Amino acid sequence: MPLPCGGAIDVCVLPNTQASVLRACHDQLASRQPVSITLSDSGSLGLGHLPTPGALSFQYIPKLRLRIAGRGADSLALARLATASGIHTELQLRDAAEAQDAQRLGIERVTTLTVPSALPKLDDDPWTAFLLAVHDVDWEETLLAQALIGPAFYIGAIGSKATHARRCERLQTIGFTKRQTHRIRGPVGLIPSMRDASSLAVSVLAEIVEAYQRKVRYPLSSTALALLADMPNVPDTHLFQSSSCTNA
Question: Are strands 45-47 and 56-60 parallel, antiparallel or unpaired?
Fold first, then answer.
């Protein structure tokens, strides 16, 4: 079915779809786990990527989730924009009044931070982006240290280049490696040095969405495959960047 934009949609009607497979797919996605469904040439569905000749495999990925820890206009502006974009957003705020403002904006998950030594339990997953906007050294170090031990695909912290360099140095003095602190993005945003809270929110959210789409499209982009082969005039070891395939 061609579309005016130049794309197309293929429609496949399965009159006797296995409801159990669809329920299992839904439940796995609801638990924040990626899942695949395989459609055989006979029209039957199977859960998972099944190596069946002629079959097609469709992968479904958990939606982007955003966790923001901070205070002030930067945190609220980003949370408001992300929520309006349909992104599941969690706010961790130090100020009780700001927490009430966030709830009035329609943000359901709002936690008030008390002391750096008693952080909320980490529940990030590989589809979670974390942004720090605290502007306090003690809180900054503790929150980033917690995020770094988790699986979030994006960790960002608001601040200048000099501020970012200092925060990474502090984290390294408490045991994190340079490779680990390299996960932290700073300064954040596609457009550098944004001062207005709303403009900064647009810049940061665009960077987060870009990182999420890159993870979805190229899930093995950071994985390497070492191929050892005895081939004349070719070095023994070659390093290839892995890619994904949608055909079963």
Answer: unpaired
* CA proximity to 158, closest of 41, 69, 56, 57: 69
Residue whose structure tokens are 């002391």: 115
> Please, how many CA atoms are within 13 Å of residue 130, restricted to the half-sphere of its CB?
24
At position 12, the amino acid (one-letter code) is C
Helix-helix angle 73-84:96-104, to 10 degrees: 20
Rounded distance between C-alpha atoms, residue 82 and residue 67, angstroms? 10
Cβ-based neighbours of 235, under 8 Å, separated by 6 or more? none
Q: How far apart are alpha carbons 89 and 80 in whole angstroms?
A: 9
Report the sign of the C-alpha dihedral through residues 145, 148, 149, 154, in that order: positive
Q: Chain centroid to CA 13: how far?
A: 33
DSSP structural state of residue 234: S
Q: What is the pLDDT of residues 201-231, one digit of tens each?
A: 999 999 999 999 999 987 655 554 554 545 4
This prediction has a pTM of: 0.81
Are 129 and 212 contacting, i.e. CB atoms less than 8 angstroms apart? yes
Gyration radius of the chain over CA positions = 22
Distance CA 233, CA 226 (A): 18
Residues found in the chain: 248
Confidence at residue 203, expressed as pLDDT on a 0 to 100 scale: 96
How far is the CA of 240 from the CAs of 11, 80, 99, 216, 220, in angstroms? Answer: 36, 42, 48, 20, 11
- 217 contact partners, CB below 8 Å, separation of at least 6: none
Residue 141: count other Cβ atoms within 10 Å of its Cβ. Answer: 17
- In angstroms, the CA 157 to CA 142 distance is 13
